[in-house]
Amino acid sequence: MQLANPNLLKLQNYINGEWRDGASTIDVRDPANGELLAQVADGSAADAEAAVAAASAAFPAWKSKTAAERAAVLKRWYQLIMDNADDLARILTLEQGKPLAEAKGEIVYGASFIEWFAEECRRAYGQTIPTHNPAMRLSTIRQPVGVVTCITPWNFPNAMITRKAAPALAAGCTVVIKPAVETPLSALALCQLAEEAGLPKGTINMVVGTDAPGIGQVLTQDARVAKFTFTGSTNVGKLLMAQCASTVKKMSMELGGNAPFIVFDDADLDTAVAACVATKFRNAGQTCVSTNRIYVHEAVHDEFVVKLRAAVAEMKIGHGCDDGVSVGPVIHRRAAERVNGLVQDAIAAGAKVELGGDYLPHGENYYAPTLITGVTDEMRIAREEIFGPLAPVQKFSDEDDVVRRANETPYGLAAYVMSENIRRANRVVEALEYGMVACNTGVFSTAVAPFGGSKESGIGREGGVEGMAEFYETKYCCFGA
Ligand code: ADP
């Protein structure tokens, strides 16, 4: 791997400020062509325990620093990430597949959480409370919860880590992270830069491992861990929540979605198409906020489909490192097969493929950007999270009815509304049972705003003041006479 800064290619686990081998190694491959990129130490449950012990030992000193002292270290980390953004983006594209420009975007986005929480931790104000008894004085202080453990997915190998680790570290917590085995290189490079930035040993630890259940058990059940935070599938999230119950850990869960994208007849169709493409085909559709169901008003349905078809047909498919590529491979063959299964199921149930609908010759993990019409709410494609470059369009005729259909899912992460009518837009934004609703845009996530879901899409928020609050315990202090 050609990097301007070869120090960024780390192949060992990072525990207590040391780089440690595992009993064996994990192959890290380029999803675009199967090429072997690196072999990374395969960490174990015992490594996870050592990491928790290190984080626990490092906690008293880290929490005792002033917010300004922690912020200074975090800002150095932020700056080092920005200085190495090109290399980090290249590593990310090679192991994950997204186009280089998107990877660079993720690095900058990921770093922005570190910068923002470094600033925000200086404002961890408590309160003085008007007393109920003249002989008593009441106040609150906010203190870091303690050791935080994180399990993160492969779709945003950088940002899903910084979104958790930055507020935790800023608050004064120490962290142990288990990144996805598909994308350990981006994760370990972050640790290298954290070390260079001066994060004390044990404050940040990372264990990559194929024994996800074994490592997961330690991270969710060790009594020294105060909080567990997870981004991944709803099924695994539910399992991990159950594991957290035995020691009543605080939890944040960012799970699956089934995002509706509603195009009203008063929408600006060019805006709607651009937003749809952005939410649907970014990262080859592999984001938890990717549009999953596109509802278009019958009066504009055909025109919208023509425009969307033209936009999808223009997409350049290829290796993420090649110039101008807008859609890369999906993460592995299983993912491509899942998408194809949804397409075949929809066709069998009467849907029509307007574009794509098949694997591509570029490599075994490539699936064509696909547009399907004639979809119904009963099809699997409308009920399951697609996580691929597949846009399924349905018609609607009535506002109340489309809102009801959009809400008819156990998920509640993101939803999109396209309308130029401010009263309707407001009405629908408020009626949608989702943690996040974007109106007339397809990209909304930022470090300054709370990201997260309702219903089975999760618990808690990442980003914004809400994201910071997740890592503090509020202590009520009562002073008697
Ligand atoms: P995806 O299907 O997108 O890979 P997962 O929920 O399976 O989503 O994976 C997200 C993260 O959860 C990854 O880091 C993965 O290794 C981890 N994971 C999967 N299963 C378990 C488990 N049983 N215990 C702990 N972690 C797990």
Low-confidence stretches: none
Number of domains: 2
Helix content: 25-40%
CATH topology of the largest domain: Aldehyde Dehydrogenase, Chain A, domain 1
CATH class of the largest domain: Alpha Beta
Give the percentage of residues in beta strands: 15-25%
The name of the CATH architecture of the largest domain is 3-Layer(aba) Sandwich
Q: How much is the average pLDDT?
A: 98
The termini sit apart by 67 Å
According to DSSP, the number of beta strands is 22
Q: Which structural class do you get from the secondary structure elements? A: alpha/beta
Furnish the topology, listing elements before pairings.
Blueprint: E1 13-15, E2 18-20, E3 25-29, E4 36-41, H1 45-64, H2 67-83, H3 85-96, H4 100-120, E5 127-129, E6 137-144, E7 147-151, H5 159-171, E8 174-178, H6 184-197, E9 204-206, H7 212-221, E10 225-231, H8 234-245, E11 250-254, E12 259-263, H9 269-281, E13 291-297, H10 301-313, H11 333-348, E14 352-355, E15 370-373, H12 380-383, E16 390-396, H13 399-407, E17 411-412, E18 414-418, H14 422-431, E19 436-439, E20 454-455, E21 458-459, H15 464-469, E22 472-479
Parallel strand pairs: 7-8, 7-10, 8-9, 10-11, 12-13, 12-18, 13-16, 15-16, 18-19
Antiparallel strand pairs: 1-2, 3-4, 5-6, 6-22, 11-21, 14-15, 17-20
Helix pairs in contact: 1-7, 2-4, 2-5, 2-6, 3-4, 3-6, 4-5, 7-8, 9-10
Bound molecules: adenosine-5'-diphosphate.
Adenosine-5'-diphosphate binds at residues 151-153, 178, 180, 212-213, 216, 232-233, 236, 239-240.
